[in-house]
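User: For a reading group we're discussing how well predicted structures match intuition. Take Transposase ISMsm8. Before you show the prediction, I'll give you the sequence so everyone sees exactly what went in.
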Amino acid sequence: MSTYFADPYSSYQRGGNENRNGVIRRYLPKRSCIEPSMANDVQAIMDEINNCPMLVLGYRTPAEAFTDEPLELTNEQGRCTSK
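Assistant: Thanks. Here is the predicted 3D structure of Transposase ISMsm8, as structure tokens, for the group to look at:
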């Protein structure tokens, strides 16, 4: 498996990461102070983002894709590879 590293300060090399940052910024502007007392608010934001369908996932939600991935790996290999 190939591994790629982005150069520092080269956001154009991390398109997916920057896209997700933009989604988070809809809820929390830059330089927002996130404190432990906001844990419930942050969890609600994460839940909303993870339950929003995405084109790149075939209109599945990230949560659905995450739970389906181990099943797909198991079906492809005929066995479970997790320990």
